[in-house]
Amino acid sequence: MTDTDLDQQSPLGDLDPQDWAAYSRAVNRVLDAAIEKFQSVSDGRVWTPVPDALQATLQSPLPTDSLDLKALTQQILDLMPYGVGNTHPRFFGWVHGAGTPGNLLAEIAASAMNANCGGRDHVGIHVERQVIDWCRTLFDFPKTASGLVVSGTSMATIIATKTARDVALDFASRKHGVREARLVGYTSDQAHACLARAFDMVGLGTDALRKIACDPEGRMDPEALRRQIAKDRASGGHPFFLAGTAGTVNTGAIDDLAALAEIARDEALWFHVDGAFGACAITSPDIAPKLDGISQADSLAFDFHKWMHVNYDAGCVLIRDGQAHRKAFANRPDYLAAGGTALAGGEPWPVDYGPELSRGFRALKVWAHLKEHGTETIGRAIARNCAQAAHLGRLVDAHPAFERLAPVGLNICCFRYTAPGLSEQELEALNSQLIEQIQLSGIAAPSSTRIDGRFAIRVNITNHRTKFEDVEILLEALERLRADLV
Ligand SMILES: Cc1ncc(COP(=O)(O)O)c(C=O)c1O
Q1: Which of 114, 129, 333, 352 has the most CB within a 10 Å radius?
Q2: Is 152 in the pocket of ligand 1 (CB under 6 A)?
Q3: Predicted confidence (pLDDT) per residue in 221-242, tens digit
């Protein structure tokens, strides 16, 4: 076969449509289904288990031949009803954002551009810089602060922890690792597991992260923190890092960030804030005062995909000292040399600020989302969610069969069904069954946790579609299911 013959095998790219009209019909069919899904998002079930027959089709052999576009479109549409359910107003599990139809616009454009946002001079880099600049403004960070749009708070935390580690060891750790340095960090016993994972991943080990006790509201006890720091110093440790939480995953508690910032200053610690969802409450003038001190952080990790409702996935890391941030990650081999006024320009490149070289154009959906809605609308939805959680707390308190297990300080209400004569073990079994049954019923989807060792039904409200009546529907359904179970 000649070179020309080889080219003739595929007049267009091998992987491009051979029939663009058919391709357009397929895309429009999926687009219509996507819009219809968003339009009817409050109807129907919250979560539906993946049917056995569909699961079976997802265990087929590796395709070696191509599939007709019409058939493929149908197969994609067949998957759409079986997501997590977090777009539905009665999805109350874990901490999930609800997304918006507006994200479709940006995601279509980003997909068509297929831009690699690790570096180089193109519009993706400029859009991401704009987003980071808006975040600096939102959290009152200085102009010299740096940041990245990342997959989520877990990744943001790894980047912040690595920067803090390298600053503490004068960047020698980039070459030599931590060697015999006994770096010690602090967070509360209510902190998210991503902090311990970050300590593990940057070579400090999870034992080096001390878990400080909390007050009854779930906030880190500053005096206990000071005592632990003194103890670690006395035994030859090198305290270097303090992580406060703006919105704990169990109860939504916000540490006294201003007090923690002061301790960090006194003790020369890097002050990090995990604000995965809670930091976004800064957009609500009523709730923002609870975050007082957040702008003093050396680093902040938070998500756009949670309480800001950008579609998954999108988080952010902000680092006050942009130079230190760059010094902790920059590593340009010859083939990534930057410079000039052409494509290799665009300094600095995002790859200088994090572990990923190839990165998608996540920033576009964040940029478009903030432009479409603005922070005021987002803040209003957040404040409404907090009022709904408080409403649920009051309903629980007024009900003789339910017991609230933690204060409702933000957007989370933890409670359980209780009855005289049942042991803790029996209560746990019953409440665990209640959660399973209500999820299977499709009416609502709370999740579970433990509060002071007691098993709890955990209702988290981070959803701009939730109405007050949705929390009432939840309690009524729990009551009905409880009667069936008992
Ligand atoms: C307080 C807190 N920190 C960190 C995370 C992890 O965030 P992500 O899932 O975006 O990595 C979560 C997730 O729910 C969280 O609630």
Answers
A1: 352
A2: yes
A3: 999 999 999 999 999 999 999 9
| Dist. CA 384–CA 399, nearest whole Å | 23
The answer to whether the CB of 255 is under 6 A from ligand 1 is no
Question: Taking all residues of the chain, what is their mean pLDDT, rounded to a whole number?
Answer: 97
Pocket test for ligand 1, best of 84, 95, 245, 254 (most atoms within 8 A of CB): 95
197 pLDDT band, cuts 50/70/90, is: very high
Pocket probe for ligand 1: among 159, 194, 449, the residue whose CB has the most ligand atoms within 8 Å is: 194
Are the CB atoms for 239 and 99 separated by under 8 Å? no
Contact 100, 311 (CB under 8 A): yes
> Of the candidates 118, 189, 116, 200, which has an alpha carbon nearest to the alpha carbon of residue 154?
200
For the cut 90, the answer to whether the pLDDT of residue 79 exceeds it is yes
CA-wise closest residue to 402 among 393, 389, 411, 390: 393
**Amino acid at residue number 431:** N
Give the total residue count for the chain.
Answer: 486
Rounded to an integer, what distance in angstroms lies between the CA atom of residue 301 and that of residue 362?
Answer: 16
Question: Distance between CA atoms of 9 and 334, rounded to whole angstroms?
Answer: 37
Name the residue at shortest CA distance from atom 12 of ligand 1.
276
Q: How confident is the model at residue 202 (pLDDT cuts 50, 70, 90)?
A: very high
Residue 341's CB is within 10 A of a number of other CB atoms, namely 8
Report the percent of the chain where pLDDT is more than 70: 100
Which band of pLDDT confidence, cut at 50, 70 and 90, is reported for residue 2?
A: confident
Q: Could you give the domains of the chain?
A: 107-373 (3.40.640.10)
Q: How far is the CA of 286 from the centre of ligand 1 (A)?
A: 23
Please choose from 92, 192, 251 the residue to mutate so as to test ligand 1's pocket, defined by most ligand atoms within 8 A of CB: 192
In eight-state DSSP terms, residue 220 is: B
Check if 250 has its Cβ closer than 6 Å to any atom of ligand 1.
Answer: no
Percent of the chain with pLDDT over 90: 95
C-alpha of residue 153 to centroid of ligand 1, in Å: 5
Residue 312 Cβ contacting ligand 1 at under 6 Å: no
Q: Is the CB of residue 274 below 6 angstroms from any atom belonging to ligand 1?
A: yes
pLDDT over 80 at 276, yes or no: yes
Separation CA 190–CA 255 (nearest Å): 10
Give pLDDT tens digits for 461-480.
Answer: 999 999 999 999 999 999 99
